[in-house]
């Protein structure tokens, strides 16, 4: 079976979160869909996978209820099941930043279409900023992009406030995996006085799909949050693995090291892994293999 994956989000007010969650959970379960949907008062965000017909039905239902096609919806394919289970959860935010001033419904940066992105980042006056976490940037990033070196998106605020200056960085172009982090990041930077803030519409995934490889400024692959671990040009599956113990991306060579145990540990976490935790991971890995 070929799995169809839909990565989607929209900032839209949702009044009755428990009722919305109950309806969507039942709707997705009935169609054999897996993955995660996050619901908050500010909108919906998630990545789900299933048969193509099922995913089309779910997207149509999300559009009917939440106007998801007015936000972002991107499709790709996987040869193996990308998610183990289905989760529909209520959260305070659909992308956690903990910055009330970052409100995309009030202000947001200027969207740049993938086909126009190269011209923007080639401008020497533009600071190109990667808003993702360090384990994601290790897999790939745009040429000459600034890596904030963060471990979670909530740390992006401190990076902006300590390392960037609206007076010196008058033009900023940012990017992320699918676009949602840039919605909040651009809103935050505008609230902090940055004058011109651009962000890649549809994120890296849309860029990889739309821009021919010969014209691409992307170096490496793009980390994704499912069993594929990473994708390359045309959003094709790439040769990366993920450590189930710590979530770090691994090259094929790194899975051959003595520190690697499938489903348990890798060179990034083996030394700090406690025996009880290791045994729990082994048990979970055995259950997943059944």
From TrEMBL:
Q: Which Pfam families match?
A: Rhodanese, UPF0176_N
Q: Which family does it belong to?
A: Belongs to the TrhO family.
> Which InterPro entries does the entry link to?
Rhodanese-like_dom, Rhodanese-like_dom_sf, TrhO, TRHO_N
The reaction(s) annotated as catalysed by this protein in its Swiss-Prot or TrEMBL entry are: uridine(34) in tRNA + AH2 + O2 = 5-hydroxyuridine(34) in tRNA + A + H2O
SUPFAM superfamilies in the record, alphabetically? Rhodanese/Cell cycle control phosphatase
Please indicate if the UniProt record lists Oxidoreductase as a keyword.
yes
Protein name as it appears in the record: tRNA uridine(34) hydroxylase
Q: What is its EC number?
A: 1.14.-.-
| Listed GO MF terms | oxidoreductase activity, acting on paired donors, with incorporation or reduction of molecular oxygen
Task: Output the Gene3D superfamilies linked to this UniProt entry.
Answer: 3.30.70.100, Rhodanese-like domain (3.40.250.10)
Stretches assigned to the Rhodanese domain: 122-216
Q: What does this protein do?
A: Catalyzes oxygen-dependent 5-hydroxyuridine (ho5U) modification at position 34 in tRNAs.
- Organism from which the protein derives: Aureimonas pseudogalii
UniProt keywords (A-Z) are: Oxidoreductase, tRNA processing
For this entry, list what GO says about its biological process: tRNA modification
Enzyme kind, highest EC tier: oxidoreductase
Output the SMART domains linked to this UniProt entry. RHOD (SM00450)
Q: Where does the source fall among the domains of life?
A: Bacteria
């Amino acid at each position: 079976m070929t799995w169809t994956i839909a990565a989607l989000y929209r900032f839209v007010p949702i009044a009755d979160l428990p009722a919305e969650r109950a309806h969507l959970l039942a709707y997705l379960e009935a169609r054999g869909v897996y993955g995660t949907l996050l619901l908050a008062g500010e909108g919906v965000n998630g990545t789900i996978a299933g048969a193509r017909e099922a995913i089309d039905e779910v997207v149509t239902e999300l559009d009917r209820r939440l106007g998801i096609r007015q936000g972002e919806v991107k499709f790709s394919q996987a040869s193996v099941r990308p998610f183990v289970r289905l989760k529909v959860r209520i959260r305070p935010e659909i992308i956690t930043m903990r910055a009330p001033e970052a409100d995309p419904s009030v202000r947001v940066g200027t969207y740049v279409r993938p086909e126009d992105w190269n011209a923007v980042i080639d401008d020497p006056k533009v600071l190109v900023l990667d808003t993702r976490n360090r384990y994601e940037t290790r897999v790939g990033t745009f040429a000459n992009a600034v890596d904030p070196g963060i471990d979670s998106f909530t740390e992006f605020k401190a990076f902006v406030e300590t390392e960037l200056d609206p007076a010196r960085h008058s033009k900023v172009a940012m990017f992320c995996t699918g676009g949602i982090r840039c919605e909040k990041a651009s809103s935050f930077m505008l609230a902090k006085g940055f004058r011109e803030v651009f962000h890649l519409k549809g994120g890296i995934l849309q860029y990889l799909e739309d821009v021919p490889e010969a014209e691409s400024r992307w170096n490496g692959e793009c980390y994704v949050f499912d069993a594929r671990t990473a994708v390359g040009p045309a959003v094709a599956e790439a040769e990366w693995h993920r450590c189930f113990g710590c979530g770090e991306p691994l090259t094929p060579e790194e899975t051959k090291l003595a520190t690697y145990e499938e489903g348990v540990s890798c060179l990034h976490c083996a030394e700090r892994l406690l025996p009880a935790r290791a045994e729990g991971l082994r048990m979970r890995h055995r259950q997943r293999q059944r």
